[in-house]
Design brief:
single chain, 241 residues, alpha+beta, 10 strands, 56% strand, elongated
C-alpha cells in the first residue's frame, strides 16, 4: 500500500512539474517573459536644420546606416539600455546669383559632411497582447564625431565677356574645396566648425516581428560653429535579431 501511495505521489509531482513547465513556456511564447535584449541594423533619413543664434535657419538632409545593441536592465521590468553607432552623410546645395560683373554668373556651393553618431538610450517596451507588435518609446543622448566636412564652389555662366581680372578672380575659387574644420581654410577660429557635439533626443520605435520602424526628434547642446546648433528629426527602418 505504501508503495502504491509513493508511486501515486511521484506521478502527481511529475504531472505538476510538467504542467508548470508548459505554463512557463506558454507565457514566454506569449510575450510574458522579459527579453534579455536584441540587435538592430538600421537605415535612417535625417532631415536637419542649422539654427544660428542670429540669422535665418538652413535645412539640410542626411542619411545614416548603423547598428545598435539593446540590453535588458531588469528580469521583471521591460526596461532597456540601447547603445550603438552609425555613419551619417549630410548634404546641402546653396545656389546664388552674383551681380557686379559685366555679366551675371550663377554661383553654387555644395556642402558635404560625414559623421559618426553614437546614441545612448533608455527604452521601455510595451508588447501588444496576441500579436508580434511592440511599442518602444525611448530617450537619451547622442554623441557626434564629425569626420569630414567640406564646401565646394562652382561658377556657371558666360565668362567670355568678363574682364581679365574678373576672370582671374573667378578661376581662383571655381572648384575650390574648403575644409570647414580647418582654421586656415575658414579664415578664423569663430568660423571654424567643431568636430565633436553632444545632444539629446526623444522618440519611439515600433517592431513588427523582426522589422522595426521609428521616428525621433533631437537637439544638440553643443555648437557646430559659433552661435550655431543643429536640430533635426529621424525616420528609421530596421531589422532586429
Amino acid at each position: 500500500m505504501k508503495k502504491i501511495k509513493l508511486f501515486a505521489t511521484a506521478a502527481l509531482m511529475a504531472v505538476g512539474v510538467n504542467a508548470n513547465a508548459q505554463f512557463t513556456n506558454a507565457s514566454s511564447a506569449g510575450g510574458g517573459a522579459v527579453s534579455d535584449g536584441w540587435n538592430t541594423v538600421y537605415a535612417e533619413i535625417n532631415p536637419s536644420t542649422f539654427s544660428p543664434k542670429h540669422g535665418d535657419s538652413e535645412s539640410f538632409l542626411g542619411f545614416s546606416l548603423g547598428y545598435s545593441r539593446t540590453f535588458g536592465l531588469s528580469q521583471n521590468i521591460p526596461l532597456f539600455l540601447e547603445v550603438g553607432g552609425g555613419l551619417q552623410y549630410s548634404h546641402k546645395n546653396y545656389d546664388y546669383s552674383i551681380e557686379g560683373y559685366k555679366k551675371n554668373l550663377d554661383f553654387s556651393q555644395s556642402f558635404n559632411m560625414i559623421s559618426l553618431k553614437v546614441p545612448v538610450n533608455i527604452a521601455y517596451k510595451f508588447d501588444i497582447p496576441n500579436s508580434t507588435v511592440s511599442i518602444i518609446p525611448y530617450t537619451g543622448f547622442h554623441f557626434r564625431f564629425n569626420i569630414v566636412g567640406t564646401t565646394k564652389n562652382n561658377f556657371e555662366g558666360d565668362w567670355d565677356d568678363l574682364y581679365e581680372y574678373e576672370r582671374k578672380e573667378v578661376e581662383e575659387i571655381d572648384g575650390e574645396s574648403i575644409n570647414v574644420f580647418d582654421k586656415d581654410d575658414m579664415g578664423s577660429s569663430d568660423a571654424t566648425w567643431n568636430r565633436f557635439q553632444i545632444g539629446w533626443h526623444i522618440g519611439t520605435n515600433v517592431t513588427f516581428g523582426k522589422f522595426l520602424v521609428g521616428v525621433d526628434y533631437g537637439l544638440d547642446f553643443s555648437e557646430i560653429s559659433k552661435n550655431t546648433t543643429i536640430n533635426g528629426a529621424t525616420i528609421r527602418l530596421g531589422y532586429t535579431f
